[in-house]
Amino acid sequence: MKWNRALRDMKPYIPGKTTTEVKTLYGLDEVVKLASNENPYGCSPTVQSFLKTLRTEFEIYPDGHASVLRAKLSDRHNVEESSILFGNGSDEIISIITRALLDENLNTIMAIPTFPQYAHNARIQGAEIREIPLHNGQHDLDGMSCAIDANTSVIWLCSPNNPTGNLIPSKALRNFLEQIRLDILVVIDEAYFEYISDESYIDSVHLLQEFQNVIILRTFSKAFGLASLRIGYGIGHPSVISELNKVRNPFNANTNALLIAEKALDDMSFIQQCRELNHIQSLRLQNFAAQHDLHIFDTEANFVLIAVDGDADDAAKYLLQRGYIVRSGNALGTPGYIRVTIGTQVQNTGFMATFNQYLKNVRGH
Ligand SMILES: *Cc1c(COP(=O)(O)O)cnc(C)c1O
């Protein structure tokens, strides 16, 4: 078959083990999944009670314009309705952007390590990928701007960055945008926006008034606790959004996702609560790291990237066998580290006790 040549060097995504699989495999009654940065508190009570009354007409196609959710978000962010693009998760927005803006003759710039879907989608398009190493978990914005040439089409910024958790400071972000040519789209992926507690952060949506070549990605998958529904969105200049809309599949956001996301926006106190709880638990994990003399990155998200003694795969396996699913840094471009979603108080206590046992074993005392 005449496969896209780019596929030759690619491998399909291998999903992590589900909690059910881990239970069966190791004979465990309880398993805590701290691998995909899902919300350990689930979704809002407002959403949960709405679900009991939800009567979807499954035979009817979704509203391809997402009118109600669009109006609500346009209000929330104080942007025009035509500034918003919906996706089947923000993953799909990433794929729409690459299909619309990258090909064999163009290049794209991103950090490394960062969210792998930017490079993955760019590779399918045959575009050249320019990966600029992080400095202490931070995007090297000067390095990224030096990598620009006439064929640069898209720059990806992930803030807070997955897998390190570092936030790009608002001031540095603005300085960077001022240097970027207007024919380059700058994507600011803020999947963990709701978790940011750094008080110097200025909502990036303000940047759109000044910079027409920016798109900001947000999602209902993380803090809103709706990852299974697959709904995310981009906010950008209407001229950018209307081009991207040519690539979007007409019914990419499903009816339940739209209805439930609308409800989720009505309960921002839940989001605030999650942010506060997450921050408290984040500090506990940072203390744990300090006490055990383990390097940990500054995080503004609901996960931490923490150093391990020995091989990260071994550490992840030890934790897995005892009911804690975490991601080995070996698979994330950060060998010597594990990425751990910040769980509830009880989950984190259990995780730290188990991780402590592992460290004792490896350290021999
Ligand atoms: C989880 C995540 C996403 C994907 O979110 P979906 O909306 O579920 O597709 C995008 N970007 C980053 C950095 C993420 O961590």
Could you give a quick summary of the protein structure above?
By secondary structure, the protein is of the alpha/beta class. The protein contains twelve helices and twelve strands. The strands form three sheets. It has a seven-stranded mixed beta sheet with strand order 2-8-7-6-5-3-4, with helices on both faces. A three-stranded antiparallel beta sheet has the order 9-12-11. The protein has a two-stranded parallel ribbon with strand order 1-10.
Descriptive keywords:
365 residues, alpha/beta, seven-stranded mixed sheet, binds pyridoxal-5'-phosphate
Structure write-up:
- Helix content is 37%, strand content 15%.
- It is α/β, with parallel strands linked by helices.
- It is globular.
- The chain has helices at 19-26, 45-53, 67-77, 90-101, 117-124, 141-146, 170-179, 238-245, 255-264, 268-291, 312-321, 345-363, and strands at residues 32-33, 84-87, 107-112, 128-133, 152-158, 185-189, 214-219, 232-236, 303-307, 324-325, 327-328, 337-341.
- Helix 5 (117-124) links the parallel strand 3 and strand 4 (128-133).
- It is built from 12 helices and 12 strands.
Helix/strand layout:
Blueprint: H1 19-26, E1 32-33, H2 45-53, H3 67-77, E2 84-87, H4 90-101, E3 107-112, H5 117-124, E4 128-133, H6 141-146, E5 152-158, H7 170-179, E6 185-189, E7 214-219, E8 232-236, H8 238-245, H9 255-264, H10 268-291, E9 303-307, H11 312-321, E10 324-325, E11 327-328, E12 337-341, H12 345-363
Parallel strand pairs: 1-10, 3-4, 3-5, 5-6, 6-7
Antiparallel strand pairs: 2-8, 7-8, 9-12, 11-12
Helix pairs in contact: 2-9, 4-5
The protein binds pyridoxal-5'-phosphate (PLP).
Residues 37, 89-91, 115, 158, 162, 189, 191, 219, 221, 227, 232 line the site of pyridoxal-5'-phosphate.
